[in-house]
DNA sequence: GCTGAGAACTTGTCTGAACAAGTTGGCCCC
DNA sequence: GGGGCCAACTTGTTCAGACAAGTTCTCAGC
């Protein structure tokens, strides 16, 4: 919590949580908040802009801001990593590496990770679970420059993201996710302890660093009876988009 | 295109599209752009903030902004509506109402639409297609105060959103989407011309007005061989969240 | 009691300025 | 040639003020 506008955004979130500002009610005017926190109107606007993009409050020119919802479920911020998400829900994340090998980058790998074709890239097949029950099969390809750091990780480590950050300072900053549904393959079925052809939620994603350099791409398949995804869209912040099949 | 910062954002998007600023290259400094467009630094910052949240450019304090990608696929902005999306891709959206009836609101309907239980709400079962091929089954429940306007709509109308806007001025401003995978039911299979138990991508969504008033909630099932969804996440803009099954 | 006009209020846009914090490149020295 | 330090550059944060554009409330008039 470093900057003033982040502090104010957080105080407002908490105030909404403890129903100081009721859902459906109105937030104080910008000038009111500015006076109360002893900052300029611009700083207040930065704070409320954050809440607006989170969908907590609605905003229209001329009218006071309205509280739309209290904090969505619980977790909202730091849940890019499966392990972090599980911990935030009070459940234990487990992980197990089933197979791991270097293969020369295919044309597809090379394009997605911005590498030259043929460079050896690390393929990892991992099963992840909540409290021991398998819920996710992850097939990940890591860029050559990060592979050595991944290779050394304990096969049973619950959080790869965490270990990569501690080991190399790497931060996953951007992600592009393509979501669809597929029938479980024989291998999926065995690893997740379900029947073949059961529906799975597939998320194919590319994760990049702050500089926009791709780190990994992954095909994740979730047991759809255990995990779903939630997306919030608002006017001017259209994170969710449809795509036709290639 | 009314405000100056929107204009500048658009010019930058176009400049990136025509590779004036190459992917991987650097954007001019804020002061540079401010001078070039004859505006203050604050206005330039509003413009580049839009591109950052779209994932087109990356930003780190101290370093020049980097171009991460050219415009994502094509459509980005105005694709909340199925019909608008289809048109933007040069395909024709079709729609057909299979069934339509008023039922008293269940406790679930009432909670999601913020109505009193028992109020008659309009249930509509609709099949939608691209160029005649069915790709989507939509089971929608409309709030009582908008139902009359929906009821009057031509059963074969391609765009309900458009007609509602023209008829009542209603704008869909916010949406909460929960995504998972399900096996096709017998009815789904018949309507979509696929086999039962084939995997479908299910999107359950609640759409609200600018004031945060829920308008409709819907269970949409997409043929996963025809349509997928794409979500862009960035640091500080975490639209995508996992959820456990209820 | 209802309607319509207008005043008061509120958010959106924009300016110009200053300092803080982080990055990059070049220069000097070894 | 290589390493390290510093200066120049760039983005992030914050302020104070001004006007535009839209909403809400009040009050007069019917």
TrEMBL record, chains A, B:
Matches recorded under SMART domains: HTH_GNTR (SM00345), UTRA (SM00866)
Record-annotated HTH gntR-type domain positions: 2-71
UniProt KW keywords: DNA-binding, Transcription, Transcription regulation
Gene3D superfamilies: Chorismate lyase-like, Winged helix-like DNA-binding domain superfamily/Winged helix DNA-binding domain
Keyword Glycosyltransferase carried by entry: no
Pfam families found in the cross-reference section: GntR, UTRA
PANTHER family: MANNOSYL-D-GLYCERATE TRANSPORT/METABOLISM SYSTEM REPRESSOR MNGR-RELATED (PTHR44846), MANNOSYL-D-GLYCERATE TRANSPORT_METABOLISM SYSTEM REPRESSOR MNGR-RELATED (PTHR44846:SF1)
Record's protein name: GntR family transcriptional regulator
Annotated organism of origin: Streptomyces pseudovenezuelae
């Amino acid at each position: 919590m470093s900057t003033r506008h982040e502090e104010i955004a957080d105080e407002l979130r908490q105030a909404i949580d403890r129903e100081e500002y009721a859902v459906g009610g109105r937030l104080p005017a910008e000038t009111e908040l500015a006076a109360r926190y002893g900052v300029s109107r611009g700083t207040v606007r930065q704070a409320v802009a954050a809440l607006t993009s989170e969908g907590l409050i609605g905003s229209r020119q001329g009218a006071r801001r309205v509280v739309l919802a209290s904090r969505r479920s619980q977790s909202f911020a730091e849940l890019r990593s499966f392990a972090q998400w599980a911990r935030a829900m009070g459940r234990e994340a487990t992980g197990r590496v089933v197979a791991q090998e270097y293969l020369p980058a295919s044309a597809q790998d090379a394009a997605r990770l911005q590498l030259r074709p043929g460079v050896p890239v690390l393929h990892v097949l991992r099963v992840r679970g909540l409290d021991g029950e398998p819920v996710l099969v992850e097939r990940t390809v890591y860029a050559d420059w990060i592979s050595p750091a991944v290779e050394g990780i304990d096969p049973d480590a619950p959080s790869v993201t965490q270990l990569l950050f501690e080991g190399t300072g790497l931060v996953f900053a951007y992600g592009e996710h393509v979501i669809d549904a597929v029938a479980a393959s024989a291998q999926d079925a065995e690893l997740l302890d379900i029947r073949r052809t059961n529906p799975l939620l597939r998320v194919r994603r590319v994760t990049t660093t702050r500089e926009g350099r791709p780190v990994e791409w992954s095909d994740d398949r979730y047991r759809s009876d255990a995990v779903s995804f939630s997306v919030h869209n608002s006017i001017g912040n259209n994170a969710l988009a449809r795509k036709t099949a290639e």
